[in-house]
Write a structure and sequence with these properties.
6 helices; mainly alpha
């Protein structure tokens, strides 16, 4: 099981437990906060980049959803896991990320560049450049 797959399984578990605690209802805000905290812990990237990435995901995919009662959907958890893979330097599931996602990730990496270790910055910027997102 890859780190991305483990993340997805843990996120599904968070959703399952949250539904059980609320008799099938889901408090999207608190569930997304828990999943975002999990994302930050799992990323292994220092500084604010993981938190800002999770914030972008929530804004772009959860808050903008046409079906907010169904969020976070399995598809949107997969998208967040692809962002986790990116932060780890993996190309696993990168096809789930849109051109807009790559552009936003590039901007976030640029904004946080001074707080990232040079090897992490080089790895992430290499991926961003290869996607034509800068």
């Amino acid at each position: 099981m890859t780190n991305r797959e483990k993340f997805c399984a843990d996120a599904r578990r968070i959703i399952k437990h949250a539904r059980a605690e609320r008799n099938g209802a889901l408090d999207t805000e608190s569930v997304c906060a828990e999943i975002s905290a999990l994302f930050v812990r799992e990323s292994g990237v220092p500084g604010g980049l993981p938190r800002f990435t999770a914030d972008y995901w929530k804004k772009a995919y959860i808050d903008a959803s046409e079906q907010p009662a169904d969020e976070p959907s399995a598809q949107n958890i997969e998208i967040l896991s692809a962002m986790l893979a990116f932060l780890e330097g993996s190309d696993e599931c990168e096809e789930l990320l849109s051109g807009n996602d790559w552009h936003e990730l590039g901007q976030l990496v640029s904004d946080e560049a001074e707080d990232l270790p040079i090897d992490v910055l080089q790895r992430l910027m290499g991926i961003i450049v290869s996607k034509g997102a800068l």
